[in-house]
Amino acid sequence: MPTLADIVTELETRYDPRWAESWDAVGLVCGDPSAEVRRILFAVDPVAAVADEALGWGADLIVTHHPLYLRGTTSVAATTFKGRLIHTLIKNDIALFTAHTNADVADPGVSDALARAVGLTGPLVPLMPAADDPGRGLGRIGSLPAPVPLAEFARQAARGLPATAGGLRVAGDPGRPVQRIAVSGGSGDSLLGVARAAGVDVFLTADLRHHPASEFMEADGPALIDAAHWATEWPWLADAAHHLASASAARGITVETRVSETVTDAWKTTAKCEDFT
Ligand SMILES: [Zn+2]
C-alpha cells in the first residue's frame, strides 16, 4: 500500500509547488508522510461537509483545490471552523493536501478541465502563459467547432458545469455569434484585460464584479459569462483524480479515488427581484 509521502510525490510531480503564487499556501496541511493511503477524496473546498464525506467514505486523504490556511495562524484549537476541521481530520487519520495556484497553471490544469466541460474542442493554449514555460499558465483559450449565438453557448456551458444556485450570468448581446472562447477557473477579474487583448469572443470565469464588468462591456470587450466559483473549478477534480490513479497504477500502486459531489459554493439560493414596471 502506498504511503502518504508516495502520493504527495505523485501529486507534486504534476502540480509542482514551485509554480504556486508567492502568496499561496500549497502542499500537505496535515497528515503523517509514513501513513498508508488507500482512499483519496478530491474536493474544491476544505470545509466541514467535505470532511464528513471523507469520514463517511473512509478516506485516508483529502486533496482540495483551496487552501485551509492561506495566512499564518497561531492556533488550531477547535474554537474556529478551521481548527475544528483539523481536529476532525487528525482524530480520524485523514490527511489534507492542497494544490491551488500550482494546479491553475499546470498543463493540464484547472482551466483545461473547465474548457472541456463547457464544450471547447481542439487545442487549448494558456490565456496568460507562464514566464518560464509558455505551455503552462493561467486560463485557456479554445474554440467551438462552429460559431453559435452567445445565448446558445451559455446554455451549453451551463449543461457542462455542475448545478449551483446562481447558475450563469451573461453580459453581451445574446444573439452575437461566438466561437473563440477564453476560460479561467476561479476569480478571473484580473484577466479581463488579457482576454480583451487576446481578441476572444467570450471570457468565461467566476466572481466578476460590477465595475470591471461594466467598464469592460462599455469598451466593447468580449462577452462575459460569470459562473459560480466552485463550479468552474470542480471539473478539474476528476482530471486530477484520474491522473493520480493512472500514474499510481503505472507504478504498481493501487489507490481508490473519488470526486466529492457536495456543492460547497458559498451561494445557496437566489431570489428574483420584481420588475420595475
Ligand atoms: Zn478558487
From TrEMBL:
- Note the NCBIfam families from the entry: YbgI_SA1388 (TIGR00486)
Q: Which Gene3D superfamilies match?
A: NIF3 (NGG1p interacting factor 3)-like
The protein's matches in PANTHER family, at most eight in alphabetical order, are given as: GTP CYCLOHYDROLASE 1 TYPE 2 HOMOLOG, NGG1 INTERACTING FACTOR 3
Annotated protein name in UniProt: GTP cyclohydrolase 1 type 2 homolog
A Pfam family the protein falls into = DUF34_NIF3
Regarding protein family, the annotation reads: Belongs to the GTP cyclohydrolase I type 2/NIF3 family.
Q: Which organism is it from?
A: Streptosporangium amethystogenes subsp. fukuiense
What SUPFAM superfamilies does this protein's entry cite?
A: NIF3 (NGG1p interacting factor 3)-like (SSF102705)
UniProt keyword terms in alphabetical order: Metal-binding
Oligomeric and partner information: Homohexamer.
